[in-house]
Amino acid sequence: MTTTSPEAAAGPETIIADARERIDALDDRIIGLVQERMAVSAVVQQTRIASGGRRVHLSREMEILARYRDALGKPGTSLAMTLLELSRGRI
Ligand SMILES: C=C(O[C@@H]1C=C(C(=O)O)C=C[C@H]1O)C(=O)O
């Protein structure tokens, strides 16, 4: 008797449609997390500015860039730069 996995039983169109639904759900979560990150970053920046400091903290940003690069390779650096721009604006 041969066994067939549900994925193999479904046709390619169904597999792609299902996977795209999962991707859309993941993108919704990622966008929500990015918005949450922006809000938390704003708290740090506003608190620092209110106490006489600067908006931008470069050594902290270097740590974040390294973290994303270590996890995701070179494109991770670009992703982190985009997240930082979204969170603190362009410098
Ligand atoms: C949020 C901060 O302020 C700024 C924004 C950062 C961020 O969004 O991760 C990082 C460093 C700062 O330039 C912080 O210092 O942690």
Q: Would you mind describing this structure in some detail?
A:
- The protein has 91 residues and is mostly helical.
- The protein is built from 4 helices and no strands.
- The termini are far apart.
- Helix 2 (12-50) crosses helix 4 (74-88) and helix 3 runs antiparallel to helix 4 (74-88).
- The longest helix has 39 residues, at 12-50.
- Helix content is 80%, strand content 0%.
- The ligand C=C(O[C@@H]1C=C(C(=O)O)C=C[C@H]1O)C(=O)O is lined by residues 41, 44-45, 56-57, 60-61, 64, 84, 87-88.
**What is the succession of H and E elements?**
HHHH
Q: β content, as a range?
A: under 5%
Number of strands: 0
Query: Roughly how much helix do the residues carry, as a percent range?
Result: over 70%
Number of alpha- plus pi-helical segments: 4
Biggest sheet architecture:
none
Which structural traits does this protein have?
EC 5.4.99.5; binds ligand ISJ; isomerase; 0% strand; Chorismate Mutase Domain, subunit A; mainly alpha; Chorismate_mutase_highGC-bac; Chorismate_II_sf; single chain; chorismate mutase activity
Architecture blueprint of SSEs:
Elements: H1 6-9, H2 12-50, H3 58-72, H4 74-88
Helix pairs in contact: 2-4, 3-4
This protein binds ligand ISJ.
Short description:
Residues 10-91 form the Chorismate mutase domain. With 91 residues, this protein is mainly alpha-helical. It is 80% helix and 0% strand.
